[in-house]
Amino acid sequence: MRIFFTLVRRDLLVAYRRRMDVLVSLIFFVIVVSLFPLGVGPERETLRLIAPGVVWVAALLSAMLALPRLFAADHQDGTLEQMLLAPFPLSAIVLAKVLAHWLVSGLPLAFMAPVLGLQFDLPTSALLVLLASLLLGTPALSLIGAIGAALTLGLRGGGVLLSLLVLPLYIPVLIFGAGAVETTMMGMTPEGHLSLLGAFLILAVLATPFVAAAALRIALE
Amino acid sequence: MLEAVDLSCERGGRTLFSGLSFTLAPGQALLVTGPNGAGKTSLLRILCGLSPPFTGEVRWRGQGLAAAADRLRGALFYLGHHNGIKDELTALENLHINATLAGDALSEEAARAALAGMGLVGREDLPAKTLSQGQRRRVALARLLVSHAPLWVLDEPLTALDSRAAALIESRLVAHLAEGGLVVLTTHQPIDLPEIALRRLTLGEA
Amino acid sequence: MKINWFKSASPATFYPLAGRMIPWFSTAAALLCAVGLYVSFFLAPTDATQGEAYRIIFIHVPAAWMSMFIYLVMAFWAGIGLAFNTRLSSMMAQALAPTGAMFTFVALWTGALWGKPTWGTWWVWDARLTSELILLFLYLGYLALTAAIDDTRRADKAGAILALVGAVNVPIIYFSVQWWNTLHQGASVSLTRAPSMARIMLIGMLLMGLAAWMYSIAAALSRVRLIILEREKNTAWVREVLEREA
After folding, report:
1. Do C161 and A151 touch (CB under 8 A)?
2. Residue B154 sits in which domain range?
3. Which end of chain A is more exposed for a tag (fewer CB within 10 A), N or C?
């Protein structure tokens, strides 16, 4: 347990000393969301209609952009190798790293989203559901993304290849996340969608660390 | 306690070595030499369980790595080409975190003493990225000074060290062997270890 | 004939064995395809609502079946290769992927060709076509990943993990897309609403499906022979084979 939290703290410390990297993905999120009105036109009705999808897709892309940071730096300076040799389950190490990664990239994203939702004139109920859906969805994205990051570790063309691998797997989270907000806007309850997101998250927490750990061992062979 | 049974290694379609076997008992050091590209690093990584051998088996305390990798990890200290330290963290922070990961307890005094031994007094609280390459390597070696693991696998530990630091590492190696520890190391330079404990292995011979 | 599985699992033994099997499968594929096309285009009646254009489903549906089936077989062999460290299984997975991707592509195109005369639109976001599109992405991801890794052992193992993760996710993705589809439109336009099946139509589709299956086996066997030659090129038997065929 102590090792788990030491790792989380270590990653948070490293991220703090590399603050700009973390902010960059957040800025990307804001820019991408702002591009849509410029592309689609400022008509309020249209914007309100596309808002849940737009914010969610932008969140997906930002989450994906942040993924290489999960293992690449540790791989380059040899600390990842040391983790593989630690007398501690690698899946737990992966979980610790993903948690720290989510705390600095996913969590701020989730809180930023309602603010951006205001740009799209979303009602308050929708904004709250947007926040909730992202709070449940972004950790799942980080977990699933960890598998992709591990598989593509050290490969040339890494970032783009990572997107190709990971985006199809993100689709269910996208559908239910954006769907939750849309159902709210239609006046219905988002409970079904949010519970499914919760179920995905639990499944992801239970399964993905082991898969990502296996992928890491393969990548470092 | 460390056994290699009929190991072979392939990289990029080439067989680097085959039929390699040895037994290393407590108190013994295996010195692996050979030209660059002969497979020294590959052999060390196979012994650590990072890479699977093409054929053959590695055994730690009688158990094959396939089943008992955990046991080996609990007893292993590995220093590869990379330093295994984070640039954004200070030398002290690095030492503490690596110790925690290895399951060792490390007091502040012991950490500072290790860094002092490697000639890094006054640099303990600076982020590692402000240190030179050589200094970073010495931080990595400071981890060696505070390690309690019985098996040390070291890839060129003495490279780029001045004579004083090299002597310190050598004396630590001798002490480790005297305590019943095991060492596997590669080096391009002459190293001063008691002949009685030394076993030699040369790779890359036709 | 007692098959010694472990012996035929060595690439050296499998190479000539596969070579002997291929002509059987390709002939079967050609025959089944000929009969199937005959049934599809001449024996099956004209559909009351969709006219002649519906006949494209005799290619679309078998292609879609094969695209899914091949993915599962590919994931299966990749998984075996990962679990038991058998080289031939991983080679088989790599051999199957391009054929599977091709069928997915064919299914998507024929789906579009069906949609245009029938509903006036080249693409329809119904659950099946959308899932098929995502399946194409999964195939492309597998091909891209295995191509990007130079070390064949790492490529096989990483590909296996990806294929298995994909296989597990396929039902999840399909379910999500279904949900998404029903949420968003009245589903008035749906490629799942095929014309009610006269038995002869079903026979036509089954024949084409079997033809596609035979073809896939022949294609995969040919491809795996090439992969074997490439990977084992440093062995004596491969050098002999290449000399003989020179």
Report:
1. yes
2. 1-75+150-162+173-206
3. N
